Each structure stands twice: as C-alpha cells, then as structure tokens.
Amino acid sequence: MTFSTPLAASVQGDGLAGSAEAAPLIELNDISHSFGTRPDFAARLAISLKLGKPAARVQAVDGVSLVVRRGEVLGLVGESGCGKSTLGRIVAGIVSPTSGSVSWRGKDLKTLSSSARREAKLRVQMIFQNPYASLNPRRKAADIVGEAPRVHGLVEGGLGVFVDEQFRRAGLDPALKHRFPHQFSGGQRQRIGIARALAVQPEFLVCDEAVAALDVSIQAQILNLFMDLRERLNLTYLFISHDLGVVEHISDRVAIMYLGRIVEEAPAEEIFARANHPYTQALLAEVPRLETTKRSFAAIKGELPSPLSPPNGCHFHPRCPHTMPRCRIEVPRMKLVAAGHKSACHLNDAAS
Ligand SMILES: Nc1ncnc2c1ncn2[C@@H]1O[C@H](COP(=O)(O)OP(=O)(O)OP(=O)(O)O)[C@@H](O)[C@H]1O
Ligand code: SF4
Ligand SMILES: [Mg+2]
C-alpha cells in the first residue's frame, strides 16, 4: 500500500505547545460512558422480586482525558470492544457521556447556548466503517450530500452547483449524483459519505474504521483523499483503526485504549519506536509490516476480559508479563515518560 500525499508539517506531541497551532480543538476531560445491559426474563423476574442484582453496566469509556490539537491526526487504537467507537461518538456529539466534559475550542459544550452547541456539533463530522449502512438506500446521492447543508442554510447560490462541488472535492464525478447508493462501488460509497460530511464545512473528522471494509488498493486511495483534504481544508482528525500499519502512516500522535481507558499516548514515531506500556508493546508485536506480505502475529497472551467486570487495578494485569502485586489493586495514572509521551503503568514508578 502506498500513500502518495506527504503529511503536512505536523503537530507533533508537545512540540508546538504555546503556538496557535497547538491550541486544542477538542478536549475531553475525565470522560466516562456506560451502557445498561438488558437482563433476560429470569433475571428481570429475580430483580422485580428483589432476589437478584440490578442489571450490570458495561463501562465502555472510563475516565478518558484527551486533547486533539488543531490540524493534527490523532490515531486511536485498541482491541475490539475497548470503547473506541463510543469515544469517537462522544467526540462527534452523537453520544452524551455519562460523566465528564467535552470542550470545543476551549469552551465546555455544556456552557454553550443551544445554537452555539449545534454549530460546534456541525463542525465535527463522523465517517463510518460501513458506508452502505450509513447511506439511505432510497435517496439519490445528490440528496444525501445536499440535505444537511440545505437544512442548516449553508448553501449560497444553487444547491445543484453546491452538490457538484462536494462531489468533486471527494473525488466523485458529479454526473453520477442522481444514482442511488447501491449503484456505486464500496470506495465510491465511502466518497459519498465523505462528500456528505464535507458539505457542512467541518473542521474535525472522526473516522471510525473508515477504510476497514475496503480493498487494500481502495483503502490507499481513500487514505490519500483524507490526507489531501487535511492539507486543503486544514482538517483535524480522530482516526480510529484496528490497523496499526495504517495508523503508523497517517497519524501525528497515537492514543492506545484498553478496556475503556487510554493507557498510552505519544507522537506516532515515538510510540512505534519506543512503546512504553506493556499492552502497547504486545499490540505492536502484532503489526503486519506493510512493506512485506509476511504477517508475523504474536497474539497477546490471555483472553480480553469482559467489560462487564473488568479486572481491578490495572485492567491489563491478568495478561501482563510484568504484573506486580500493586497492579492488582491500584489503577496506574498517566505519567509523562518522555516529551509528549504519556503512559499509565506502575513500572514507570519503579524506574524513577
Ligand atoms: N449501544 C450499546 N449498548 C450496549 N452496549 C454497548 C453499546 N455500544 C457499545 N457497547 C459496548 O461497549 C463496549 C465498547 O464498544 P465500542 O463499540 O465502543 O468498542 P470498539 O472499540 O469500537 O469495538 P470494535 O473495534 O469492535 O468496533 C463493548 O463492550 C460494547 O459491547
Ligand atoms: S501497571 Fe502492572 S499490570 Fe499494568 S501494564 Fe504496568 S506492569 Fe503490567
Ligand atoms: Mg468500533
């Protein structure tokens, strides 16, 4: 896979701290989100007779604090079910967190007027994994792309000309705009999703496994489009992916998530060269190298614990090769281990 567009001079870690470019566009402060689970009939009966415990909750996101600076690409990585999509939806304003605060351009969303909140929400758009599922099959591509900007009064001049422009920006031929989603290929459908997002003039794109469902050659084209749009429109990205190879190529910084928590955060080069957290080290051992077809997987030892009952202390302790007694009791806090590099592991205390 090749990526033709070089990354723009990027915001690396804390390197630009203090400059205008380093200002956070989005800031998550101690965000948590849990989902209720639906008990089966027997459990519901037991609860109503006060013989059973209330239904368990899944702690999908657990005390996450994260900053995404203007113009950067933050990669978000972790195993299935660790809470990446839930966190992405919180950033995009689709899910309201159970607790914690989200700030947009330094202002807590909760303190904004409803119109300012709507405006901020429009500036953050989400691109989903399955473009087919996210496009209404009964609507023509032109209507899908044109609807939100029309409703929000963002169209100056004719809607047709506006939609054509969005199609061109996403690399689609406007002559195809009267087709329905099923008449496009997978890559073209993802471009419709991108055109729809761009049509409301976003500053921030949350891409949730946005290329995972595409063939490798199409993946490269869509990734190049994202990077091209980043330069042309000065976009900021939260890029969620299972594929560490893709994340390594396009991210300025990477955050690693495990069972609802961010366990490590660093500039991309730094994390791939000097991973600090034992979980990140185990994940990186799984990266298939892009330049070879050889996929040398070293599966992480042990099962991923259930998010319904995560282990105490460090969630990673049942699978960690370095577990110490305190790891079973005490939650490790994020600590700076190098410039712009934070990690949540008790081993960093032992070393200091
Ligand atoms: N709407 C929901 N109702 C109940 N539980 C949910 C809901 N959405 C997510 N969850 C649970 O929250 C946890 C985190 O899910 P999430 O989809 O955010 O993970 P993910 O990291 O995106 O996984 P994947 O890599 O498979 O997409 C999982 O245990 C999931 O089952
Ligand atoms: S805190 Fe302990 S269990 Fe967790 S990653 Fe570090 S050494 Fe392993
Ligand atoms: Mg997901």
Walk me through the structure.
The structure is a single chain. The chain has 352 residues and is α/β, with parallel strands linked by helices. The protein has one domain: Rossmann fold (3-Layer(aba) Sandwich), CATH 3.40.50.300. It has 12 helices and 12 strands. The strands form 2 sheets. It has an 8-stranded mixed β-sheet with strand order 6-7-8-3-9-10-12-11, with helices on both faces. Strands 2-1-4-5 form a 4-stranded antiparallel β-sheet, with helices on one face. The protein is globular and about 65 Å long. The two termini are 41 Å apart. The N terminus is likely disordered. Bound molecules: adenosine-5'-triphosphate (ATP), iron/sulfur cluster and magnesium ion (MG). Magnesium ion binds next to helix 2.
Low-confidence spans: pLDDT under 50, at least 5 residues?
1-20, 292-298
Strand order of the largest sheet: 6-7-8-3-9-10-12-11
The amount of helix comes to: 25-40%
What's the total number of strands? 12
Rg on CA atoms, Å: 21 Å
CATH class membership: Alpha Beta
The CATH architecture comes to 3-Layer(aba) Sandwich
User: What structural class is derived from the secondary structure elements?
Assistant: alpha/beta
Q: In CATH, what is the homologous superfamily?
A: P-loop containing nucleotide triphosphate hydrolases
